[in-house]
Design a protein that fits this description.
Strand content: over 45%
Number of helices: 3
Structural class: mainly beta
Strand order of the largest sheet: 1-21-19-23-17-14-13
Radius of gyration: 19 Å
Amino acid sequence: MATETTTMKRLIGIYQPGSRHMVGDGFPVRNLFPSNDLDREVSPFLMLDHAGPQYFEPTDHPRGVGEHPHRGFETVTIVYEGLVAHRDSAGNAGVIGPGDVQWMTAASGIVHEELHEKEWAKNGGTLHAIQLWVNLPKASKMSAPGYQTILDADIPAIDLDGGAGRLRVIAGSFLGHKGPAHTFTPVELYDLQLKAGKLVVLALPEGHNTSIFVLRGLASVNGSEKAGEAELIVCTRNGSQVTIDAHENSRLLVMAGEPIEEPIARYGPFVMNTRAELMQAAQDYQAGKMGHLS
């Protein structure tokens, strides 16, 4: 007879940042993957950079990352503090602030820049954000680029039972509330705030990779050891239940998705399936086929 414990996703491990570096001159990041060699365990997610929190002095020259290309995947930027401005070669532009999400589908190729918003930079302030890269299946890698600006007001926010906290559904669904993000493969992405001493039980799909990143606080999953700030809890694909306990007031990013069981070939800003496709991507960018910023 099945018991509740048989449905739980078991813990694979708790990981600390595998590298720390500066992206451009405006995003000091701690990288959780791919630096921890977790490709299979976190697919369809390819990268998680945790930027800040860090204070930036006022400046008339906004910091950030200038013009650069991408092909073969999506970038997802979640802002917790600060303002980030985006501009790309498809003509999209926007500013995202606390609670907002920018979901850019590079697909066949796009060129963009990400800078601290001009007026915010003039005043200075604390920047705190996450950027995820989400893989695209082979059949969609050369589809048309796209862009989704997902504002805080567009993201369903659910108050948890017993005053435990609040969960925002960026992608996927929770208790019948569907997130606004369009995804190419099934993805659950939740912004979770839990109060000290409280817990939440999540039902996540069997067979989907699941990981929980701790932005602040102290938390454990399914009775595991505690994970603190900038640590990543990775669970097995098997099972469908995750219980998250907060041992301090905590903010977490919950990521689950259907694995993409295809070869990964990556080089800098390109993620394809073969080395030949990477070489073609570099040639196409150099030939201006991904466009440029005016």
